[in-house]
Amino acid sequence: MKKQDPRIQRTRQNIMNGFMRLIKQKEFSDITIADITQEAEINRSTFYYHFMDKYDLIDEIQREVLTKEIFKEVALQEVIDEQTIIMSLQAIMGSQINLSLQCQHALKEFKSKMDYEIKQRLTETLQALLDKEHGVKEEHYLLATFWSWGIYGVAMACVEGKETLHTAVNRLTNIILG
């Protein structure tokens, strides 16, 4: 894999940071490419070198910034156990709170894609843990997918106050670990 020029990385990050500053002040639908380029102090062609439009930018922010390291600590686990479940729930709950605080003006645009990205990241993380613990098996993807969507749903129930973290951990541990 070819290493990217640091200037390109800085410019790309500058555009994303500028957008994130704007999204705290304005509704997503009101933000223009001109607003983004002015905030990032770049010209329009530089923006289009990095992104097709503001929707492409929002997709990249979700992938690179908001979900990139959400399950970093979970991935360091050796096995799937109660601690892994707790860490997964806390990571999801934290991301939801962070999303609502950082992106309240674009919550509608971010939410569904963000939900999908979180589930995908957790699926990848859990599958890697299953493979590490039991060797690579085809059925690990399906099992990891099932668990990740379930863990996500329970985390959302906790965020919404329908479930406590303690009760959720006990129930999920019984389901996942038997």
Automatic annotation (TrEMBL):
It comes from the Bacteria. This is TetR/AcrR family transcriptional regulator. Residues 32-51 bind DNA. GO terms for molecular function: DNA binding. It comes from Peribacillus simplex. Residues 9-69 form the HTH tetR-type domain. The keyword Cell membrane does not apply. Keywords: DNA-binding, Repressor.
